[in-house]
């Protein structure tokens, strides 16, 4: 095209088909954006202010000289790691993988893996052994104790329990 010559390209906006999926047995969400006839170079994925996923693309159609374009912005959930979002394009599908932060309920819940299933003394992610008590959840589990205070509290409970048992046993 010569300098100063008017462009005969017309633009046509379209809305691509999008599908949310959660991968089995993981905290990963995937957004699939179906973009037939698009090439990787014609797409742009970015994150604005760590809270908005911006997806855009522009494709010149071969038969009529029109440019197909789209611009989609999606507010990211607060439980997503924005710095770990990954995009992959293949087979006319743009797949955007978004790892989810564990919820407060999932943080205390042990992960089941085949190597330590049924083994209550296998080490957890922190390198400390798991036990039956770590699987219990109650309102008291939200309390934070140092190891020293927790040990003292456990010892006091045991002393009280044995004292109560002794009193009941010797009552007769």
UniProtKB/TrEMBL annotation:
InterPro entries, per the entry: A-crystallin/Hsp20_dom, HSP20-like_chaperone, Small_HSP
Start and end residues of each SHSP domain: 8-117
Keyword Ribonucleoprotein attributed: no
* Protein name in the entry: 17.8 kDa class I heat shock protein-like
- Region Disordered, as annotated, extends over 99-133
Q: Which Pfam families match?
A: HSP20
Residue ranges of the TM segments: 150-168
Q: Which keywords label this protein? A: Membrane, Stress response, Transmembrane, Transmembrane helix
The UniProt similarity line reads: Belongs to the small heat shock protein (HSP20) family.
């Amino acid at each position: 095209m010569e300098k100063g010559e008017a462009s005969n390209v017309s633009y046509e906006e379209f809305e691509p088909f999008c599908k949310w999926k959660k991968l089995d047995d993981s905290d990963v969400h995937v957004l699939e954006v179906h973009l037939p006839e698009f090439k990787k170079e014609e797409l742009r994925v970015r994150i604005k202010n760590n809270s908005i996923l911006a997806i855009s693309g522009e494709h010149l159609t071969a038969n009529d000289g029109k440019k197909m374009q789209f611009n989609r912005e999606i507010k990211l959930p607060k439980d997503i790691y924005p710095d770990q979002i990954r995009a992959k394009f293949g087979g006319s599908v743009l797949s955007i993988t978004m790892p989810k932060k564990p919820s407060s309920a999932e943080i205390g819940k042990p992960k089941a893996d085949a190597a330590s299933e049924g083994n209550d003394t296998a080490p957890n992610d922190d390198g400390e052994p798991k036990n039956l008590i770590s699987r219990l959840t109650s309102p008291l589990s939200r309390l934070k104790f140092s190891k020293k205070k927790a040990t003292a509290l456990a010892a006091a409970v045991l002393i009280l329990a044995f004292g109560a048992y002794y009193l009941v046993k010797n009552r007769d």
